[in-house]
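Model: Ready when you are.
Researcher: Fold this.
Model:
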Amino acid sequence: MPEIGEPVRLVQEHEEPFSDGKYFEHIKKVNEIFYDQIKISDQKAAYIFTFILAFLISSTEGRGVFTIERYREAVLINICASAALALASVFSIICAIFVILPRRSAKTTTLFWGAWDSHRQGFTEAAKRGDLGYLFREYLDNADVLSRIARDKYRFVTLAFRGLVVTVLSYVVLLMVGNA
């Protein structure tokens, strides 16, 4: 890294930016971080799913919001809180499932096992030429794919978490008002 006041070396016309190993290492690290973020989003979704499911199975109040009898002669606050709890818990479970569902991308690289057959020949040809640019582009393209997948997953994690918050708040309201 240049010192303060020292001129920064620019890439020459004939030179590729990845000829400096720092860029190559950086894009590899970006791929690792994005992949970790995808795994973390799956874990968060699994926690939310497990919590909601355990709550619905173990709680009489939780199970009760799915019975019609609960709504027949209840007061408005109980009806609203029960409906909110039922809708929010189902919403959270569905969003958590959407997080965990496999993702496909129109763009693939050699780093995705499902596309290896279509990329194998290009990879071996680049290896024969010693084409470092090919590797750099593969990591760069893979970072694009992983970024898109992570964003999609986190959008559903956020929705599932918001549904969880509404579920908990609705449950607290039901506990506070009791059988009013």
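Researcher: Now this one.
Model:
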Amino acid sequence: GASTAAVISMQITKNLKEDGFMILMGSINTFNFILSMVTLYVLDKARNGSIIVIQELVDAITINHIVIFLSAVLIAGSLSVFLALGLSKVFSKIMSIVSYRKMVLSVIFLITALVLVLTGPLGLLILIISTAIGIIPPAVHISRTHSMGCLLLPVILYFIL
């Protein structure tokens, strides 16, 4: 997926500056959305949450829908490059004066609260399990990509069935 593309791109372009990294990540995510739209059109299967929302809003995806959505993606993606580059400078200044520990704890608390409010106890259980799965690989000195293996069979079955 997008993370694999980012790793490969970073290996190819080792001298990438901060601006280049931001553009690279935006490009990868934009392409990932476009690929998800094509997958929805061809296979009638959603690859991510934003595509699921589109699938629920539009009864049957036609080529006209694809053109409209792709136009919106390209316009928004183009504008977001300039916004991200400008805002990243502002946030980098803010980050230098904010306690990193307090910020991390605040983000963890916010995510936990949102999961609990939006999905209830089951969502909180899934958050705890997925966090544990994400912590295990660095603890045993292996790549997190090995954890993705457990997702392959269900995803393949979803797209086949």
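Researcher: Key takeaway?
Model: The radius of gyration is 19 Å.
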